[in-house]
Structures are given as C-alpha cells and as structure tokens.
Amino acid sequence: MKGPPPQDFYGILGVPRDAAEADIKKAYRKLAMEYHPDRNNGDKAAEEKFKIITEAYDVLRDAEKRSAYDRFGEAGLRGGRGGGPGFGFHHFDLSEALNIFMRDFGAMGGFDAFFGGGQRTQRERHRGQDLKVSLKLTLAEVATGTTKSVRLRTLEVCQACRGTGATEGTRATTCGTCGGSGEVRRHAQSVFGQFVSVSPCPSCAGDGLVILHPCPTCRGDGRVKAEKTVQIDVPAGVADHHYLTIRGHGVPGPRHGPPGDLIAVLDIAEDPRFERHGDDLVFDLPISFSQAALGAEVQIPTPYGDTPLRIQGGTQTGTIYRLRGKGLPRLGEGGRGDLHVRVQVWTPAELTPEQEQLFRELQEVEGKPPAEESVGRGFWNKIREAFRA
Ligand SMILES: [Zn+2]
Ligand SMILES: [Zn+2]
After folding, report:
1. Ligand 1 center to 233 CA (angstroms)
2. What does pTM read for this prediction?
C-alpha cells in the first residue's frame, strides 16, 4: 500500500532545485502571506495549503534535511528504509505550521528586508534600529548654525493593534517553552562538572511572548512603514564628517520596544571662495599693480557678508591680512576663528595699446626691484609681518 503521493517541495514553493536559501525564504513568505489562516477567515483549503507550504519550507530551509530530501525524497526525512539520517518528519498540524511561521517571520513582521536586518544581541532585540541621514550644509549655515528639516523613511507604531502586534481583542500569551523568560537553559555534564548553557528560546525567539493571532496590519510586528519629518538643530562651527546623534528619534522598537537613535552625518559643501583650516578661513584676493602700489579699499567676502578692507600702498604678493573673528565659530568654545586674506598681485595677460603705452612710460621712471640676495625668506616675512591688520 502506498501513502499519499510524494510531494515535490520545490514545486510547492515554486523555486528551482538549486534555489538559494534566501530565495526559498522569500518564496515561502510570499505564499504564507497569501494562505495564512488569519487572512483567509479559517478557510479549510487555505489552511491545508498553509500546512503544506510550511512543511516544504521547513525541510528546504535546513541544509541537512534538504540534502537528505534531495537524495531520498520524503523517505530520507523519515529515516529507516531510505538509509537517510532521519529527521522524524511528519505532516504538520496547524499549530506547528503557525509556530514555524512565527518563529521565522513573526518578530520582524517581514520588515527585515526593508531595513537590512542585522544581528542583534538579546538585550538589544527590542530596540529599534538607528537611522542614518546625511545632512548637506553650506559654509554660511556652518557659520551661523541652522535648523534642518529632513524627511525620513521609518516605521511608526501600528494604530490597528496599538503596537502590541496582536489582533484587536486578542493578546500575546506567555511562551510555553520558556515560561516567558525568553531563554532556555540546558544542564549538561562535562568532565569539568555540570554546566548550564543559556540560549534564546527557539519558540518565541527570545520575546517571552507568543502572538497566536498576529495583527493583520503589521503582521505581528507592532509597527508599520511611515515617513516623517524631523527638525535637526545644527550648532555653529561644525566640521565635515562630524555627526549629530539625536537620541530616540530612530526607528521605534517592535511591540513597544525602545526606539533607536537618529544619526545625522554632516556633509558640508565646499565654498569655492574659502580654504578652511579648522575655525580659520583663507581667502585669496587678487589686486592690480596700481592697487598694490597705491593702496585701495576692497570688499572681502566673509560667511557673514562682505566686509571692507584697506589695502595699504606698497603691498606685495603673499601679504596676508588677518580679519579677526571673521572665521568660523569655535564649536563648544565660543568665539570665532580668523579670516586670512592672502594678497595676489594680478598681472594682466593682455594689454590694450593705451595700457602698453602707459607701462612703457612707467618703465622709464620706476625703481628697480630689490637685489636678489635681499629677497630671501626673511625679506618676505618682514613684509607680511608689517602689513598684518
Ligand atoms: Zn498591528
Ligand atoms: Zn519562549
């Protein structure tokens, strides 16, 4: 006599025989969402289908069971005649199927892929994830400090179950396997004596609670996808790649777990006018021959608006004027850095006939530049010192 016809577990999940574990999970999750009893008002056919896909999934997700099944079919899972190791395979009843679904998909409610998952320690299990945003700032915003509004893709507490994860009118029950502690202890004997190993409870994944009727809106997670806008205060004087941590503004934890943090990484746009050295800024100022020789009143850009600067007659290339307090604020210290104006005497590349005429006349009467040996480092440094504002 033969039992029911052998099932093709790959065909049941609709995956190829060489499917990766992740694809098997994905295929099962999709089918399970469709046939889950909670979504089918107890429809018997859906319930049967849910049991069958869960059986197929539970075998194919386990490398050892899968390889036994590949070689010997179901017989390889039952052990005995097929010669396989045997895994005590039997057809699931509904509660076994539901438990397997909850074990692997209940806690994260299918939002795993959305946030990239990641391993967390047991203590951290209920804490929501940190959110990272990049905050683009201009130098002017760094100079004054600013408040930025950012739009976040996050999760929020599910309104349908008020964050409990259980269908309205039901509640999570204490896990029977661990009695609510979320841990299982095993006593084992070794040559060194008895020891106790503690691991997360396999039935409730460490939650201590089992949700028999997950909220259909959030699939038991207690949270749903959401977008929100957050205001972030940026203090004056911050630097590129600094980050600001806004505690508690990350993703809320599942089922009223504590929220993660919001981490804003600062991305400060270069201002082509300035070179930044910490709190100090450097501005290159081109001036003409006549401005250098005769002196001039010029406007210097600063992060706080233009400011006038008197260039003295006889200014050399390389002279640096220091505008005190026109640099960036000192973060957390008060006060501001300086703005250094580096003078560059500009030589015209082309001359009009009139300019050329004037330069030739000037050449007749101008003095000679200083002798080479006196133009060492000391000479230029003296000049720079003399003209600091
Ligand atoms: Zn819900
Ligand atoms: Zn448990």
Report:
1. 33
2. 0.54
Ligand 1 center to 160 CA (angstroms): 5
Taking each helix axis from N to C end, the angle separating 44-60 and 63-72, rounded to the nearest 10 degrees, works out to 100
Asked if 152 and 234 count as a contact pair (C-beta separation under 8 A), the reply is: no
Span from the CA of 168 to the centroid of ligand 2 (angstroms): 22
Q: Are residues 130 and 231 in the same domain?
A: yes
What mean pLDDT comes out for the span 312-327?
94
Looking up residue 257, the CATH number of its domain turns out to be: 2.60.260.20
Nearest to 316 by CA among 338, 295, 340, 301: 295
> How far apart are the CA of 49 and the centre of ligand 1, in A?
25
- In the chain, pLDDT over 90 holds for what percent of residues? 47
Q: What range defines the domain where residue 159 resides?
A: 124-167+217-269
Write out pLDDT tens, residues 369-385. Answer: 776 655 555 555 555 55
Q: Which domain-ending residue is among 229, 254, 269?
A: 269
Residue 197: its H or E element:
strand 193-200
